[in-house]
Structures are given as structure tokens and as C-alpha cells.
Automatic annotation (TrEMBL), chains A, B, C, D:
SUPFAM superfamilies: Glyceraldehyde-3-phosphate dehydrogenase-like, C-terminal domain, NAD(P)-binding Rossmann-fold domains. It comes from Microbulbifer echini. Keywords: Amino-acid biosynthesis, Arginine biosynthesis, Cytoplasm, NADP, Oxidoreductase. This is N-acetyl-gamma-glutamyl-phosphate reductase. Pathway: Amino-acid biosynthesis; L-arginine biosynthesis; N(2)-acetyl-L-ornithine from L-glutamate: step 3/4. InterPro entries: AGPR, AGPR_dimerisation_dom, AGPR_type-1, NAD(P)-bd_dom_sf, Semialdehyde_DH_NAD-bd. Catalyzes the NADPH-dependent reduction of N-acetyl-5-glutamyl phosphate to yield N-acetyl-L-glutamate 5-semialdehyde.
Amino acid sequence: MIKVAIVGGTGYTGVELLRILATHPQVDVTAITSRSLNGTRVSEQFPSLRGHYDLAFCEPNIEQLCACDLVFFATPHGVAQAQVPALIERGVRVIDLSADFRLKDIPAWEAWYGQEHAAPALAQEAIYGLPEVNRADIADAQLVACPGCYPTAIQLGWIPLLEAGVVEPAQLIASAASGASGAGRQAKTELILAENSDNFRAYSAAGHRHLPEIEQGLRGVQPSGASPAQVTFVPHLLPMIRGIHATLFAKSSAGLSPTELQTLFEQRYKDEPFVDVLPPGSHPQTRSVRGTNMCRISVMQPQDRDTLVVMSVIDNLAKGASAQAVQNMNIMFGLTETLGLESPALLP
Amino acid sequence: MIKVAIVGGTGYTGVELLRILATHPQVDVTAITSRSLNGTRVSEQFPSLRGHYDLAFCEPNIEQLCACDLVFFATPHGVAQAQVPALIERGVRVIDLSADFRLKDIPAWEAWYGQEHAAPALAQEAIYGLPEVNRADIADAQLVACPGCYPTAIQLGWIPLLEAGVVEPAQLIASAASGASGAGRQAKTELILAENSDNFRAYSAAGHRHLPEIEQGLRGVQPSGASPAQVTFVPHLLPMIRGIHATLFAKSSAGLSPTELQTLFEQRYKDEPFVDVLPPGSHPQTRSVRGTNMCRISVMQPQDRDTLVVMSVIDNLAKGASAQAVQNMNIMFGLTETLGLESPALLP
Amino acid sequence: MIKVAIVGGTGYTGVELLRILATHPQVDVTAITSRSLNGTRVSEQFPSLRGHYDLAFCEPNIEQLCACDLVFFATPHGVAQAQVPALIERGVRVIDLSADFRLKDIPAWEAWYGQEHAAPALAQEAIYGLPEVNRADIADAQLVACPGCYPTAIQLGWIPLLEAGVVEPAQLIASAASGASGAGRQAKTELILAENSDNFRAYSAAGHRHLPEIEQGLRGVQPSGASPAQVTFVPHLLPMIRGIHATLFAKSSAGLSPTELQTLFEQRYKDEPFVDVLPPGSHPQTRSVRGTNMCRISVMQPQDRDTLVVMSVIDNLAKGASAQAVQNMNIMFGLTETLGLESPALLP
Amino acid sequence: MIKVAIVGGTGYTGVELLRILATHPQVDVTAITSRSLNGTRVSEQFPSLRGHYDLAFCEPNIEQLCACDLVFFATPHGVAQAQVPALIERGVRVIDLSADFRLKDIPAWEAWYGQEHAAPALAQEAIYGLPEVNRADIADAQLVACPGCYPTAIQLGWIPLLEAGVVEPAQLIASAASGASGAGRQAKTELILAENSDNFRAYSAAGHRHLPEIEQGLRGVQPSGASPAQVTFVPHLLPMIRGIHATLFAKSSAGLSPTELQTLFEQRYKDEPFVDVLPPGSHPQTRSVRGTNMCRISVMQPQDRDTLVVMSVIDNLAKGASAQAVQNMNIMFGLTETLGLESPALLP
């Protein structure tokens, strides 16, 4: 059994980790921290977990964390970079679900997040936890930076095209939408149901923090010599709880036929347990991945014109956060990659 | 491995059976029937099941069904009573999720459902599949009639009070509300999102088909000599997908204190794996049982007056239908009762 | 033109007043106060009002308020009782949408709201603004206490029965549900969409602040000598924005036939412009009153038993708050009672 | 008073016309037709209209229609082209809300709609009812083809850029999303709440019928000599009732600064009563136009790159259908253009 701790267990990625790990046959959750809820039982805070955990939230304690095989950080940005170095030094493995170790370009991180980075060297060593790209490195990693939700959906949708170099990399357009759980479990007026139900809007269209992560990831898979991927990214807020849908537009530069396009995607992901390329003509639905680690993708070439459309859906809390973290854990500890992640989506 | 077939697999209770059984370690689903979708792959109809089933829907075939250990009927009322007798005769075990075998009072069944009953004798032999009441009989049953969704939530909420004889049985009031999946996967204008989102209404307040089932079940647990339970039942339609919430009112006749009330409920359900009595003062939420076989219950005595309030929540498709059917299956086949039903609710 | 001011314009009842008054032909909104948004234009805070108001929020100023014919208080409880006395003294008329002046029983008010009442004498003089009961007194009132949302829906549903003395007043049961806007525009985690969408739950079942208001109102219409109305009231939170649905249960004590019941309701409300008794067998829907001052009511006697069921729907922000306040204003200023309140509901 | 009839009054655009016209001071609705509901009172079918209309649905009757000043067609495509010619011949004015007379390219219409056009000559004479482009022609028109919902939102968003010739017309990308009422009031399984709530998906990405209308409209405003506008258009279905949000991407070809962009939009629409250009940095929300004839627009240039982003929101049933039809009626009959369309949006 792998002994794991979760730092920051009161947000949605924390409770999602607890939900998934509750039935994982090789994991024992031994600690979950929260300063504000210190002493409160997990099952009191989250009645859905009654009967699954006897744990209470505790204050973060370095000795307790160091007694674990693996520590998940499910904290706001800024926390992991302060606490992870001590754990790494002591040989503990870490999966960080926050944005702290995703970017290699530290000045960019500091500009987008508006603060100095506390562990820039560690950020260079961290492995970006997108298994479909970095599986081998993840297996050996001590520190994995789990990708953001939008970056996961968007990268998986575009990777086949950019790896193959068949679209113009400087004219990428991503129109994506997320369920409200993506904004976290925060007490903000702008998040209450009466402000968001029966409503739809874009946000951060002038610049969203996930943009540099998306571009870094795409550039990483481009053939050498290609002009660097450049993305216009507009996120939207959906009146629903879970799910990300990315609608991706790219200009074809290689004249692939619809059949070749479809084959390109199917071949790229044929061995991936959590990426499902849908049959030609399909439109993926967010509910088809609700609660799961799946990413479902379709590709189309409308009107036989040169703009290609890729649609990619994930569950923002699952493949977009906590389930992908468990997938990374399975890889790091040599377990079957799908362990604990086998249940179908909750539909309807 | 238990070989099972599902008759009528295109409705919500059918796809929910498929979802649950996909990860059940002791079950092999060998056939799923649908006349209208004969030949269509299950994963084409329900993309959430891609990768989980290779099956295609087939026409019902008695020989194929008889080769199974167990057949689930997930069909509209009227179908099972026509097809089950032949299976029973051949020794196949059956769990019927429809209303066909729930009522012992055949004239009542015929009045509420507006048709002649095709297998009245079999209805007498059928075991009502509420494990919290009939566990022993279910274990030996050849035919189990799985309870309706409202009746499950309402009976579990009132059983402790009626068994103990501490409320006036002739003044029971149930105000209950169901998610829209309770109305099934039907092409009806009155069910479309634009008619039901941001809306709430009662329906069938003058008389709902679940009323006689509720009263039969409650009367079955009353002490002999008690005046028979009589219920006023008003169901409502919620602008959401899954979940039943029953708010139950009863007049206290025995002067129990709040502590005695709480103890009564806790004692009654202390060995039940799927009934969770919440701490005093709690209000159960439907999302706390989403996708699970749990029923969560609270009991209160507002203002210390003599009207008791019980709140009971289930997932209408799970404990209210397909997960309860799997619980019954586990009991019938001597498996651990919770097998395949261990995952926590999907929250948020 | 009536010159009006709104104190506390940033909550939902404030913006709903602005919405309704924007097209009221006899009203000029001259001031709207908010300490926190002092100087911010109304149209900046609420883009739906762009083009309708040039006003900016201002700090409360007694001289400015006293220059108005009428001041609406759309503030949390506690505010109006502190500020209204000075206005009353200066001869300004006031409609308070908060709970401050609704209860005549000051100790009860203080017990339920947990603070000392700052203007108990004024509370005795205030007229309870339910036009269907107090129209004449409202016309002459200087201070109107606008009813709460649940109390409006529930009283209108039961008044015909209690006035006529045809039900047992000590066994009244109200199961009611409200859209999330009823909880106000507050930054609370428990109100965010991801916590409430696809979810249903009761709250404050052990005792809600609207209970004494409901009982006071019902007792006020009972024939003298009747035993006082006593209500068990369980409110629920709906995963939607607007609407209250009250499902009301009462024990018939006079043996009225269904036809007599229907007639009783139709006669009681035949001259009321904003109460609509639906035909026998109907179930009112909250969306049928969305955005309007209407209350729609149905009455039934299920199974010909002695429990009567009344269903009553309103829009909690309209007839349950701001539109009813405008109805009261029309009455107070001798205008046509329906002025500015004529638009049909927004359906779908 | 203008005497109007509505042909096809049982769909959402029909009931929306009834809602708007109920308070229009210059209109008398004298007939509303429906074969299937012949004889049913409008207020029985739509309880939200109780008290507003005494009308019953009637069978279409040419004499009755010809006695009107104006006939609205709120019918599925194919109906108006069969019935309108006889009315035009008799001198009746017609506003058609369907797609029948929107396209000038009849072979394209026949290809997209899969049937022969019954009145191709009349289609050439029809005026496309987008007042922001065709106001003068609408005033004199006998037959107005009211624009589709997506085309309205998308054209209004791009018109300033295409008229000015400051973007590359062959690389236009529209990612748009609609509330479920856009699919109409139809009994289809794919439209029921349990299939669409908490879900998001694209549809018709390979080609939607509104595409040729959008391109025709955009080409109509381009300067002569420009290469013709070509659009990639992906529509999505939102889990909500009303609202369209169009997120529009175009490649800047003229190097406009953000300030020049903003000014371009503000100048273009400065005299338009129903187009509201938001301040720089804003994101329009669909709820800000709920139930109104407004279109709210923002324009941005993310990261100072050359892809411009325009966001445009309307209510699909209002500015996207029935309210725009009333705006057209006001223009045709010389009324104040905003008459009957003054109410602010229903928010929250």
C-alpha cells in the first residue's frame, strides 16, 4: 500500500482526490491537512464521504508528511513552492496540482501570477504530468507538476496536429468553456448560483493564466525548426458543475484529407487508455466523461475548407486535475496505469 | 462469474445497470436487448460506455436469456409480466425494475395502471426487493420486484416510526421531489430542458402510481392491530438530473424526545450498509448520494411540537432503481452485499 | 411623478425594484444608496440596466431621502429600524422590504433575529403590506412592512381556508421551496453554483425566521374564537434562480366537496388582480409567474381523503418582494394597482 | 391599433411574440393559428398568459389573415413560402420568422434545407430584417425575412470590422453557443433535461444551416472588391433556456489599435437603440439581455497579437427572433422603434 497525504484538502481538487482514492486498492490516505478545518472530520465537511474515511483534517506537519510515500498538493498557487522543497530534500515524492511548477519560464510565471517564485530551481526539475507526452519521465520523477484543466483539454486536442506539423502554428484559436467547479470552492459573489445559472459569458479573454502553459506544452511537441505555437485562448463559464469543452481551430498547412486527419488522431492515441478518438462526425459531450479520467476528441474539416476543428472534452476536476494526478501516481509507483480509474462516466 | 442479461437496455435504468455492472468483479453482462436498437453497439448509443462494453443490443431471445443466471428487466410496466413467466418456468432468476410485480393487490394494480395484469399469481410469489425489510426472503427469491424510487426514499424514512408505532398512521404526509431522470428517457415536450430548467412544479398530486406501493410497504411493517398507514403523497419535478428528496411529516403519538427519536433511527439502521442516519440537526442533500446506493436520513421535531419531520434522500436511478437491483443481486447470489457499490458520491 | 429613493440598492431586491421601476410611468427614481459602491454607476454594477438609469450609488443622506415622496428599504434586517424613524418623523412614506417591521410581537422578533429591536413602537404602527388582506390600511399607511417571500406564498394559499374556518388550524404543514436568489446576493461558499446546481435539500427545518410571520398572518384572518393557526414549515433550496413553490397540507374539518373548495378559492380572489386560482386539477409552475407579481394557486383533495393540498407559486423577488412593494406603492399613492406590473411572465 | 395575426403560435417564437405584444400599446392580436390546438385557449396552453389573452387557437384561414394589417409567421421552414404568396397578393404585410425568405441564393437554400423552394421570386423581393443594416428598406417592405438567432448575434459582432475592411475576410471563425430554447419546443429525446443539464457539446460543426445566411449578410456589408467573407462556424448547446453568446475571431489586417477598435464599434452603433457596445475590457453576459431586444458587444485584442476577439450576446428568442420581429414591425408601421421593447432584462 502506498501511503499518501493530501495538503489542502478542502477545495474541490482535494475532495476529488479523496473520492477517487477511497476505492483505490493500493492507496492508504494517512493525512489530509487544512489549517482552517483542523480537527474537523472529513466526513463532517463532505457528507458524501461518510463511511469512507475516519480521518480528520490536521495542520500541516512536516514529519507526518515525510512519513508518506507521496504527498499531493491541492492548494492555491504559491503554497506548494514554499513547502515542497523541504519534502523533496527528505526524499518524499510529490504531485502538485497547482500551477507552481508547471512553467519553466520563471519570469513568465512571476508576471502571470504577480509574485516572486520561491523555488525556481525546483521548477526546472519538475516533470510536467501529462502522461500522453511525458510518461517515461513521470515514472522516475520525484516532483510532478500536474497540468491545468484547460491546458490538458487543449493540448490533447492539438498535439497530433502540432507533432505532425500539419497546421500553421501561429494561428491557433481555442474557444473553451468550463463548468463552475473550475473556479474552485470559494466564497465569491460572482460564483453564486443566482449569478451564474441560466447565464453564459467569457472571462479573462484578454489573457488567462493557462495561456503560457498551453503554449509551452504545444511548443514542446513541435518538430524542431517549426515556428512556435501561438494561441488565442478565450475561456467561458458554463452554468453547470463539471466539464471542460475545448473547441479548437487551426489552419491546415499540409492538405490532409478528412480520412488522413482521423487516422492521424487515432494512431497518435491508439495506446492511450484515457484518450478516446471518436468516430468521424461525432461531437463529444462533457457528460460522457463526467467523473472520469477520459478525454474524448473529435476532429473535423467543415465545408472542406482549410480551417480544421478539433473538439476535446474532459472533466475539469478529474482528467483536468485529481484523476490525472492519480494516473501520474500509478505511473510513478509502477502500478497499472488505470488502477482506481476504471468506472464509466455518471450518465445521465 | 454471474452471467446476466438486461431486457430493455435503452432507458435510464438500463444504462445505469450497465454503468454499475461495468466494474462489478463478479458479473458478466452477456446480453442486452432492445428491439428498436437491434444491432447498435451499446457504446455507440451511450458514448460514456465506450471502452467498457463490446456488446450490441439484440432482440429479446428466450434461449439466450435462459442461458443466464439472472435477467434484469429494465422495461416499462407491462413488459415483464408478459415475459417473466417463461423465464421463471425455466428456472432463471429475475429482478424486475418495473412496477409489474410490486403490488400484491392485483385489482389495485389494474386500477392504477389501467390494464389487466398478465401474471397475477407470479405477483403473489414475487419478493419485494427492499433489503432493509426483506433481506432473508430476497436471498432465496427467484423473482424480485425492485421498489420504485419514491417508495424507497419514503419507506426508508418512515419505517422506524411505523415499526415502533410511535406516530399516527392515518395522517402521514409526504412531499417529495425528483430529478428529471425519474421521468425516463422519453421524447416528450413536457420533459425538454427549455420547459423544465429554472422551474419547479408538483405533478400527479391527485394520485400517483407509487402511492399504493408506499402504503403497502408501510402497512407491512406496522405492528399488528395498528390502524393502516394512510399517506398523502405529492411528488414534484426538480430542474436537475438525479436525486429524490422526501420530506415526511407525521404526528407523534408516543411523546418521544428528540434524543429518543434519533436513537430509534440509528438503532434501526445500524447494520444497514446503505442507510446512513445523519447527526441531529443535519439536512441531507441529494448530491451526497449522487450515483450511489446510499440513503441518507435526518429526523427532527421542529419547535418541540408534535409534528415530526423526516428527510430522506436517494439517487432515483441508483438506490431508487439500478443500484438497489445490484444490491438485491448480491444478496441473491451470496456475494458481499456492497460489492460493486462502494464508490462515494460524485460531489461536487 | 412620484419621487422615490432606494436604500440598499446592491442586493437582489434592490436591483429588482430598479428593473420594475425603469418602465413605471409614474415614478422617478432619484437616489439609490450603497456605502460600498458609493460613486459607482448603477449601470456599471448591473449591465442589464445600461441605458435605463444614469444614477450612481450614493451614501445614505437624510436630506436627500426626505426630499422624496417614498423611500424603499431593500436592506438586511436591522438597517431599516435604525434609519426609518427619522424619515417617518419628517413625513416621508416608507416601504420596508426587510423583516424589521413585519412582526407585532417584539420579543418574538428579538428572539428569532437575535438582536434588540430599535423601533418597537413603530413596528406596532406599521401596516403589513399584503394587499389581499390589508388593502385599505395600506392606502393610508405611512410605513408599510412588505411581507417575506415564503409568507406571501403560504398565506395566499391558506387564507381562504382559514378565513372560512374549514380546516384544523393546529395541524398546518407547509413544504416550500425557493430559488437561490432568495438567499440574496451574498459571497458565501454554500451559495456557489458548484454547491447547489443538480442538488436539492431542506434547510432551517428546525425553525425558519419566516415561521412567526406566517403564523401571525394566518391568525390575523381566522374567525374570532378559532384555535390559533400552528404551522410546521420546512423550506428547501432549489437549483434555480427565481421562484417559490409552497405545497400546503391541511386537515379538512368541514367536509367541503372539491367543487365547494374550488369555489371558495375562486370567490375569495375573484377581484384580486394578482392572485390567479387555476382550474381544478392544475399544478401551478413557478415559471408561469417568473418576473411578475402574480400568485397562482391550485387546490386539491387527493383520494377524497380529508387532507387538503394547496399549491401556491410566486416569484420570490417579485410578488415575494419588489413587485409586491410596487403594488403597495401604487395603492399608497392612489394609482391603478397594476401600473408597471402588467408584463406577462418570461416563459420559457 | 395595428391588427396582427400570428401563424403558428405554439412554438417558442410564437409564445414570445404573444408575451411581447401583450403590453404593446399599438397592437391588437386578433388571431393566432394552430392546427393541432384548434379551439384551445392560448391561456390554457400557456398559463403565463392567463389574464392577458382571451384568444383561442384557430385553424389558418386566409380571409381572417387578410383582414389583418400584419401577419407574423412563427412556423417551421417550408410553411411560410407556401402560404405567404397569397397574402402578399392581397396586400397584407408579412414578417416571417422562419428561414424561408432569408437567402437570396435559392439553390443554396434548397441544398441546405433539402427541399424545393416554393416561392423563389418572392425570396428575391423579401427584405432581410436586420434593422442595423436595412432600416430604410424595412420601413417600406411588404415582406420581411426576420434573421436567424445565430446570424443576428454574429453579424452584429462582425459588421463594424467587415464594413471597415480591417480584417481578413477569408479567415473568420465563430464559436457560438445557444440556450436550449433555440432548438424549439419539440418532443425529442435529445432535448430532454436529463440529457442536456450539466452537459455541453457542439453540434452541426460540419455545417449548420445558419452558415450561408451569416456569410450572405457579411458579404452584403463588405466594401466592393473585398474578397468574400468566409466563416468557420461551430454552434454549441448550453444547459440553459435562453441566450446566445458568439465568440468571434478575426485576423486584423489594418493594424488598428485597441482604442481605434473600440471607437470603430462605438461609432458604428452610436444611434442604434438595441446594440450596446460595452466599455473596454468587458465580457458581455447572456443574462444581461434576457427577455430583451438588446445585443451587447465587446471587442478585444488579446496579448496585442493580430487576432481580434469580439463577443456578442443576444436573447435567441428576443433579438434573435420575436423581439426583433416587433422591432421590424415598429419600423414598418412608422412607430417609435423601441415601442413595447423597453423593459430591462430579467436579472437575476
